[in-house]
Every structure is written in C-alpha cells, then in structure tokens.
Amino acid sequence: MQIILLHPRLSAKSLTLTTRHILLLLILFAGAVLVSTSLLYYITLSHAGGWKLPFVKDALAAVNQDESGRKDKYVKENLTAMAVKLGEMQAQMSRLDALGERVQGLAGVKPEEFNFKDKPGRGGMETSSYGAPRELSMNEFQQALDAMSRDLDHRADYLNVVETTLMSDKIKSRLLPTVYPVNVTYNSSSFGWRLDPFTGRSAFHEGLDFPAPIGTPIVAAAGGVVIASEFHHQFGNMLEIDHGNDIVTRYAHASRLLVKVGDIVRRGQHVADVGSTGRSTGAHLHFEVLVRNAPQDPRKFLTAGSDQAKLAALAAK
CA of 140: how far to CAs of 51, 147, 150, in Å? Predict the structure, then answer.
C-alpha cells in the first residue's frame, strides 16, 4: 500500500506501507481500544455510586444480585449438608449414651457417680497467649463437624469392644461355681486325704460333704447344662452340671433329682434335695468341682464367691 502526502509549500511525498506495518497498526489499535475500555469500566465502577445513571445502577444491582444469589445458594447448600451431618451425629450420640449406660451397668459404676446425660463442666479464660478468639469460617466449621463425627464412630467402636469384654467376663463369672449348693457353710468332711468312714483306711476325698436334713434344697452353684441325672452305685442319686470352660460340678447322695439331662439351669436354681442314697452314712450333700475331669478343692471357688459378694455389698453402701 502506498500513501501520497501533499503540502502547499512542500513537494509531494509518498509512504509505502507493507503488510508488516499494517499488522503493527492493527495491533496498536486493538491495544488502545482494550486499554480505553478497561479504563472506562474502572472509572464507571469506581464512581458508580456518585453518578445517577439509571443504566449503571441497574447493571450494578444485577451484578450484586447475582453475587448475592450465588452466596445464598452456597450457604444454603452447606447448611443443608451440615444439618444432615448434625442429625447423624445426634443419632450417634443417642446410641453412644445407651451403649455407655450398658457398659456402666456391666462395670458396676453407679449412675450418680457418672451420668452420660449430664453435660460435663467446662470453662477457662476468654483470651490466652495464643491470641484472641475468632469466628469459624464455613469450611472450618464443616471440618470440625467431620472430625467430631469420626471421633464419635471411634468411641462407639471402642465402647462396643469394652462392652463385649465386660459381658464375656460377667458370663464367665456367672459360670464359675461360687454359690454354696446348700444353705450350710459347715462341712463334715473336707477335700483331701481322710480316713474312709466305711473301711477306716486312708483315702482321698474328692469333694466337700455338707450335712443337712433330708429334703433340704440343693441349688446349682453356677449356670450350666445338666449332663448327668441318674443313680450311681456309690454316689446314689447324682447330678452333674457342665458350666463350660471344662468346669463340671457334681451333686451326690440326693433324695430327689428335679432336672434331667439337657436341661439348662441358672445360677442358684433348685435342682435336687439332700438325701442319703448310695454309699453314705447319713443325710448330706457330697459336692465336687472338676476341671478337665480333675477334682479341685470346692472351697477355692466358694470362698471367691463369698469375697465377691462382700465386695459388692460394700460397694452398694
């Protein structure tokens, strides 16, 4: 492209514009337009409050309404999510309270000593060396809710394990033969070596003999399953109860048996009556405790039961 410049006092001059010059001019023009537009936009927004131009006000109102709508939508969505999370946490807290009360009962803790429904006391200074308190942002609040929900799950799992362990221990303690089988603490013949009342020879006595009138109730020393209810040529009317963990109790010389093989008996249940059947010199109960078929001194179990009952009575006061 060639441009000719004419002047009255000067001779004519010509300028030749190449494609490169044209492109450079176009770029400069586009840059000038962009800078002018940006400057106009900045001036308009900066002084929009002072100018009473209807179209500017409408544009600003539309922008502000758009931004406010986005913020409201964001807040509503977050509030809905947090409300759902809060509802889940409330349900978890209710389950945790119920679980805590069960564990409390199994552990023997009195409700007045620790009540899960009472809020714990808290306090402290409003300010500290770490700085003044500040409000939580929406994201920080959401993170705190999520962390608390995870902590609730972990505590529920932990309490479930504790409850299972306590329940297992309680069941095992109930299956130990620690209850006196008759309402008599005196025994006429102890566990160990003695002179046999029939032969006069030294013989090992594998249980305890509790003298009592015929018909005196015999109770199960612990809960279990009846595995023998029969007449034995030496023990007379004999009853055997399996308590699990290889522990069996034997009740001999009874006048009457009240349970049969396969019956499940509870701790302290009336299962037979004292008598003098079999190889016996008089009315009494022969009581044995066998662990893996090996006879044990029943006094160890009965004494442990008496000590536990005394401790429970002291704790109840």
Answer: 40, 10, 15
Distance CA 146, CA 140 (A): 10
Q: 255, 297 in Cβ contact below 8 A?
A: no
The CATH number of domain 192-316 is 3.30.390.50: no
User: Within a 10 A sphere around the Cβ of 187, how many other Cβ atoms?
Assistant: 19
CB 173 within 8 A of CB 245: no
DSSP states of 94-129: HHHHHHHHHHHHHHT--TTT--TTSPPP----SSBT
Q: Which residue has the tokens 């429904």?
A: 117
Q: How far apart are CA 122 and CA 100, in angstroms?
A: 21
- Rounded CA-CA distance 21/27 in Å is 10
- Over 80: is that where the pLDDT of 275 sits? yes
Please tell me the distance from the alpha carbon of residue 107 to that of residue 93, in angstroms, as a whole number.
20
Question: Taking the alpha carbons of 110, 111, 115, 121 in that order, is the dihedral positive or negative?
Answer: negative
Model confidence at 218, in pLDDT bands (50, 70, 90)?
A: very high
The separation between CA 286 and the C-alpha centre of its own chain, rounded to angstroms, equals 46
Averaged pLDDT, 117-144: 67
**pTM of the full predicted structure?**
0.51
Measured CA to CA, the distance from residue 149 to residue 92 in angstroms comes to 8
Q: What is the pLDDT of residues 281-306, one digit of tens each?
A: 999 999 999 999 999 999 988 887 76
**Amino acid at the residue 177:** P
